[in-house]
């Protein structure tokens, strides 16, 4: 029992704060230099340091996909990775998809197909669709559903989201 | 998350040296499991050594005529690698049955082997758990245990090891290459994970301060006759209730060699070479597969909510072996 109490006491001791680290990233085409504590996730960095709040905090455990961004072109959960590990990386968030005032075709597709209700999961869904299309692995409807399963939509807009993906796959094939 | 210090290793030996020198330090690569556990305070490393700059990102032919998967290759890059798809489709399918596209883009092959259990009590720091905190007891044995183990359990722990990739690696008889303070060594997949016994807090036989550098696949990939059957509560992005990796080498209807590994039923991928050997020289038939299934589940023990897994695992084995048999001409 004493052992356990001592252990708990030890665990409750505040740890000394380590120095911040300098990280340089290219975010939506702009190079940014930041001073960060090692435990800051990419997600928290985007939202709290850079005020890019388009990327959403959902579960914060990699289960819902609301925080999906593109890291060096690949979709990942920004909540489950440390910003300090990505010095030199290139990041695209929902804010970086539109070009010259024109929405990205996937963003446009979400409007055309009414692929959202509350919109909270939408930035993550859109980044995930962009990642899925560039991966080039989805061939069937089942593939689309499987490869989008890391993005949860509690409003249940799935059918219309799948339509956007189908359309975008067709468009990318035609190019 | 508890504050921690961070450093980036640029060389294998330096990484091993650093982790050995620093109390409570852990390696970090993809981080998809470790950071989650750190957010929950289930794991509280005081220092993280970033190994993502060590190289180990190649997939190349090894001396045995098989493939060597660098420890830092992502799960996605492994599953979609042309040589893996072509020669080890069982591995590709198993990897793609796990996690989500986002996680597979970040999670590494080495890290996948070190995934910790998804037992709810392990994650809940308010409950007793011998794996998280040795000596506190097991809340799962008499608790909610639907997704927990039926084979190789002990009175101290009934956790399962959740990887899909590792189930295929076990069936393929892969080998794990590691390096540590005492040099390099090779751990066969069958010996990599350990059963709980009275020390359930130790998941694997990887020693403290050892680093996984690569995984070797033997030449034989069972690419003509294989199946990965995963039974879960939803069609995608869920851990296995039961999974089966099966590989067959057939001569007509006659089995020359059979491999079967189970996932979701124990703290390690469950393989029984003596039961596989029962199929050697036998007909590939439902009846013979049923005998193997019965042998695999002999001694299985349910804990209430997970009793159903025993029958489910038997049926999944038969189904996987039938699917593997029937592949002829389809691939």
From TrEMBL, chain A:
Compositional bias segments (type: Basic and acidic residues): 1-12
Keyword Transmembrane listed: no
Limits of the 2Fe-2S ferredoxin-type domain: 21-97
Domain of life, per lineage: Bacteria
Molecular functions per Gene Ontology: 2 iron, 2 sulfur cluster binding; metal ion binding; oxidoreductase activity, acting on the aldehyde or oxo group of donors
Gene3D superfamilies registered for this protein in UniProt: 3.10.20.30, [2Fe-2S]-binding domain
PROSITE patterns linked: 2FE2S_FER_1, 2FE2S_FER_2
Record keywords, A-Z: 2Fe-2S, Iron, Iron-sulfur, Metal-binding, Oxidoreductase
Classification via InterPro entries: 2Fe-2S-bd, 2Fe-2S-bd_dom_sf, 2Fe-2S_ferredoxin-like_sf, 2Fe-2S_ferredoxin-type, 2Fe2S_fd_BS, Aldehyde_Oxdr_Iron-Sulfur, Beta-grasp_dom_sf
Region: Disordered, residue numbers: 1-20
Protein name, UniProt field: Xanthine dehydrogenase YagT iron-sulfur-binding subunit
Lineage: Bacteria, Pseudomonadati, Bacteroidota, Cytophagia, Cytophagales
From TrEMBL, chain B:
Gene3D superfamilies in UniProt: 3.30.465.10, CO dehydrogenase flavoprotein, C-terminal domain, Uridine Diphospho-n-acetylenolpyruvylglucosamine Reductase, domain 2
Bilayer-crossing regions: none
Name recorded for this polypeptide: Xanthine dehydrogenase YagS FAD-binding subunit
GO MF annotations, alphabetized: FAD binding; oxidoreductase activity
InterPro entries (UniProt xref): CO_DH_flav_C, CO_DH_flav_C_dom_sf, Diverse_Substr_Oxidored, FAD-bd_PCMH, FAD-bd_PCMH-like_sf, FAD-bd_PCMH_sub1, FAD-bd_PCMH_sub2, Mopterin_DH_FAD-bd
Residue ranges of domain FAD-binding PCMH-type in the record: 1-222
Pfam families linked to this entry: CO_deh_flav_C (PF03450), FAD_binding_5 (PF00941)
UniProt KW keywords: FAD, Flavoprotein
Keyword Hydrolase: no
